[in-house]
Amino acid sequence: MSQATTHAPHNPHLEPGEGEAGTVREHHDHHELGFLRKWIFSVDHKVIGLQFLFSGLVFLALGGMMAMAIRYQLAWPWRPMPGLAWMFPATGGAISPEFYTMLFTMHGTIMIFFVMIPLLTGAFGNFLIPLMIGAPDMAFPKLNMFGYWTMIPAFFFILLGFFVEGGHAAGGWTSYPPLSTIEAAAPGSLTGQTCWLMGLTWVGVSSMMGAVNYVTTIVKMRAPGLTMMRLPLTIWSLMITSLLQLFALPVLTAASIMQLLDRTMNTGFFTPTNLVVNNITPDSFLYGSEGAAAGGQPLLWQHLFWFYSHPAVYILVLPAMGFTSDILAVHARKPIFGYKPMVYSMSAIAGLGFIVWGHHMFTSGMNPALGMTFMVSTVMIALPSAIKVFNWLGTLWGGRIHLRTPMLFACAFVSMFIIGGLSGIWMAATPVDIYIHDTYIVVAHFHYVVFAGSLFAIFAAIYHWFPKMFGRLMNETVGKIHFVGSFVFTNMTFYMMHQLGVAGLMRRTADPYAYDVYQHLQPINEFITISAFCMFAWQIFFVVNFFHSMFWGKRVGRNPWNAASLEWDAPSPPGHGNFDKQLEVYRGAYEFSSPEVAEDFIPQTRKV
Amino acid sequence: MRYLFALMLLLVPILGVWTFVEADRWQLWFPQNVSSFGGEIDGLFNLIMYMVAFTFIVTEVALAWFVFKYSANRPGKGVFTHGSHKLEMIWTAIPAVALLFIAFAQMETWAKVKFESNFPKDGKYTKEKPIAELWASQFDWRVRYPGDDGTLGTVDDLERSYEFVVPVNTDVVFHLRSRDVIHSFFVPEFRLKQDALPGHTIPVWFRAEKEGIYDLVCAELCGWGHYKMSGRMTVLSQADYDKRMADIKAEWFSNGKEQGQ
Ligand code: HEM
Ligand SMILES: [Cu+2]
Ligand SMILES: [Cu+2]
User: Fold this and answer.
1) B216 by DSSP, 3-state: which?
2) Are B158 and B259 spatial neighbours (Cβ–Cβ below 8 Å)?
């Protein structure tokens, strides 16, 4: 597929935008590509970005529906779900315990591996990197295309799992063996878990291709004059994220393959000696002589899994931090406060992120002396996070803040990330974690960082870069309505989970009220469930706004926000090859409110 | 508009702190503590809570205030600054010290609860001579007492499911084991949690300081029946404990024997 023949997805006949007089891209020798070449087998980074965006949003809806079912069960255990009897004929619409374990397992898996990572790195990484560094495309456009193609088997396996005997994986998104490896241990461990492992492995392959591409592109293809220290923080965050992927993913892939072998060839890497599950002696023992040992280690999986998955939680937040930094600066008309400390603290988060994985295993039976060292490193990782928060506040200070929708979501990210970061300190404290590990405080913590944090940053990014993607603005009023409801209901949903955790309520139980100690918590859970339903329903404002604006939104020129970074020098949407002029970069991306010029910003390409 | 949004951001610290203040009244706070080290754990939780609350209020109020104050309606341009080295040093150094303080404050209690070298050595029960073995399996708890000879794995061992009986005000050490998958021993009132790891025997100690019956909760996902894997922790006075053990023994040898124990 030759690049010269591919073309801009839209015909960018632009009207001048709010901010500047847009030059309309010249289109000679314009011949249309077929739908397939343009949208399915595309090597254009922008189209691939949109592919990741759309599939991520579809999975977001799926994962969200599963969350609603989980919440229903927690508020009203075992009560049939109205109108869903056709789906669960055996129970008349009620959730069975087996189904509940599968629900939260797949909710977590889908949200992390099929929504957040693909949206942050796949969608925005692809769309933004070449545009923000002034490159015509990725360094390896074909590899980029394969990066999306390898998501297809991932989608296939992760969806297939729902239809196999025993249902989908049900060992938690963490899939601790032996629960996940021994067929007799859980229905989801029959075949579902194999689908889960295959799905994850393919996501890994995709992320790996993406990461190689991103790093190479950022290192090699920056526009003339764009030094590393002039890069927008979004690009830094995506670069650091890619390095995390490159170093951490091989470990997860190896671990998944070991688990796959345990499941299919009875290798017993994670299976200890002398198990009796469900009165059945697992196969691995039957191959040896009498009393044979599998000799495996369940904790080995936890170490390998968290060696990847702790860095992965930063993969889930670093790009969000990058987007937030850019959006705050643009809409507050202020340079980033402490650009270098921002870069260093992101690097510190990434570096420290490799030596904190043990904080997920304080009570696992791991050597408690090791727990002590993991506590110190974990507590210290809160430091760069704090520095970033202070610098965001510094960025807002003294600004001229335009409270447009992307800005609102970005401010909400800061507000919510503070909550999630601070609750991390409790859990990092080993003695306190003895009590709160595996309780709802952990659930509150990661939903504040990932949902209220990163997902809000994704919303911010969608509202902010939508004009670049489609050449049209999303509707402001509807956007604000979307923001207000999302913010309020999200907090109503997740905040009280802290208190539930302090009360000792554990996560992952289908019916907490089976225990006397938790019976009085039902009303709070009901309140949370209703809030969650409202939050879910509220997203209709986003869906309608998104699709309506895609076709009928207000057209804009190149730079509707008067931003300074390079992507706003390209037409909206950019054609193939992105830029219609030679770029030369003279400064960093955050020259807002500079006294040097009359306007309140200096584009990176402008020589003063 | 900025009034609304600044107010929303301001409500985060206000309602956030308020729910924590009220939580106790709504019974959304720690259950009673009955173990010797639980008080320390609650104390450490509170210590962190006060430091966290301070940071939370300061940053969230600053955020709301900036959004309110530095609105685009103000005339002129924003302040043109790229940062301040001095401020960076301050807000790196102070949190660093605070965080290290938090970390060091934890170590003693952690070592006391989990380090085997700190386990009770002089009492009746030790790591080598535990009060019982607690076996977790899908989805129940079984306690195996060593019987009169005080040694596990001999013919006079007593087995009992669901209920784990221990004497009050005594340092208790038991062995935690799993037959199948990973489970977790959790008694909220003891502030004690420890995973049961198949293939391993993990010694655990505690000292219950109040008689009563407490829920023994499985805190690690162990399969579809995880939610109902409950047990009971019964703490009795020494006299009652001895009596109960005699009952358990009688019961075990009357109907347990012919099951081929
Ligand atoms: C301020 C820095 C942070 C600290 C000190 C911290 C600390 C911790 C600790 C100690 C745990 C384990 C809790 C337990 O299981 O008992 C944990 C869990 C978790 N954290 Fe963080 N965290 C921080 C930031 C983040 C961020 C930024 C994210 C993601 C964007 C994140 C995502 C998670 C997730 C997903 C879990 C739960 C994993 C599970 O068990 O399912 N954390 N965190
Ligand atoms: Cu972690
Ligand atoms: Cu369990």
Assistant:
1) strand
2) no
Distance CA A327, CA A589 (A): 12
- Please check whether residue A560 is in contact with residue A402, taking contact to mean a CB–CB distance below 8 angstroms: no
User: Which alpha helices (DSSP H) does A404-455 contain, by range?
Assistant: 405-428, 430-436, 440-446
Q: Cβ separation of A333 and B179 shorter than 8 Å? A: no
Residues in chain A closer than 8 A to B138 (CB atoms): 185, 277-278
- Ligand 1 close to Cβ of residue A361 (< 6 A): no
ipTM over 0.90: yes
* Distance from residue A173's CA to the centre of ligand 2 (Å): 14
Cβ–Cβ of A510/B113 closer than 8 Å?
no
Helices A151-160/A192-220 angle, 10° precision: 160
Strands B171-178 and B132-137: parallel
Phi and psi (nearest 5°) for A592? -100, 145
| Domain boundaries, given as residue ranges, for chain A | 47-265+297-569
Cβ(A386)–Cβ(A293) under 8 Å?
no
B162: left (phi over 0), alpha (psi -120 to 50) or beta: left
The model's pLDDT over A22-46, given as tens digits with 9 standing for 90+, comes to 333 444 444 567 777 777 788 999 9
Give me the CATH code for the A47-265+297-569 domain, please: 1.20.210.10
Across B82-101, average pLDDT: 96
- Three-state SS for A562? coil
The pLDDT of residue A41 is 82
The partner residues of A473 in beta bridges, in order of sequence, read A554
Q: Is the CB of A315 under 6 A from ligand 1?
A: no
Residue contact B23–A408, C-beta within 8 A: no
How far apart, in whole angstroms, are the C-alpha atoms of residue A1 and residue B45?
61
Q: Are A377 and A421 in contact (CB under 8 A)?
A: no
Quick check: A298 and B5 CB within 8 A? no
> Residue A540: how many CB atoms within 10 A of its CB?
11
Tell me the one-letter amino acid at A442. Answer: V
Ligand 2 center–CA B152 separation, angstroms: 38
pLDDT in the model for residue A169: 95
Cα–Cα dist B13/A213, whole Å: 42
Q: Give SS3 for B75.
A: coil
Kindly list the protein residues that place their beta carbon closer than 5 angstroms to ligand 3, a single-atom ion. B 183, 218, 222, 226, 229
Q: Is any atom of ligand 1 closer than 6 Å to the C-beta of A360?
A: yes
Q: pLDDT for A444-480, tens place per residue?
A: 999 999 999 999 999 999 999 999 999 999 999 999 9
Residue whose C-alpha is closest to residue B212's, from B188, B193, B182, B237:
B237
Which of A144, A251, A301, A161 is CA-nearest to residue A207? Answer: A144
CA–CA dist A414, A421 (Å, integer): 10
**Contact yes or no for B63 and A415 at CB 8 A:** yes
Nearest CB to B78; choose among A400, A504, A520: A400
Q: What is the reported pTM?
A: 0.93
Cis peptide preceding B37, ω within 30 of 0: no
Percent residues over pLDDT 90 in chain A: 83
Q: How many of the other CB atoms lie within 10 Å of CB of B21?
A: 9
B201 in A contact zone (CB under 8 Å): no
List A residues 415-434 in contact with B (Cβ-Cβ < 8 A).
415, 418-419, 422-423, 425-426, 428-432, 434
Residue B156 has which token pair? 């006079």
- pLDDT category at A19 given cuts 50, 70, 90 is very low
